[in-house]
Amino acid sequence: MTRIILESKNDKDVLLIKELADRLKIDYKIINATEAKRKDVDLKDKYNIIDKGADVSNYGDPSQWQKKVRKDRNINLS
67: closest CA among 57, 58, 75, 59? Predict the structure, then answer.
């Protein structure tokens, strides 16, 4: 699959490209600039959350959890 991204301020040009894509049976998606910018901002916010990391101090001792959940297995944890 190949993706081509075109930008145009002229609605008539967009209509011509859309008609050509329809004729060639090419899938396309038209996104206006404000919608695309909003998606970029949302993505940046999500990356900022990931970069900050999570506070896992309130989750307790993972080895205790493992012993409780897997009590039917013989697990040797140091």
Answer: 75
d(CA 13, CA 26): 17
Q: How far apart are CA 14 and CA 20, in angstroms?
A: 10
3-state DSSP of 31-66: CCHHHHHHHHHHHHHHHHHHHHCCCCHHHCCHHHHH
Q: Enter the pTM of the model.
A: 0.42
Provide the residue type at 60 as one letter. Answer: G
Confidence of residue 46 (pLDDT cuts 50, 70, 90): confident
Residue 48 has pLDDT above 70, yes or no: yes
26: left (phi over 0), alpha (psi -120 to 50) or beta: beta
**Tokens 């409780």 -> residue:** 68
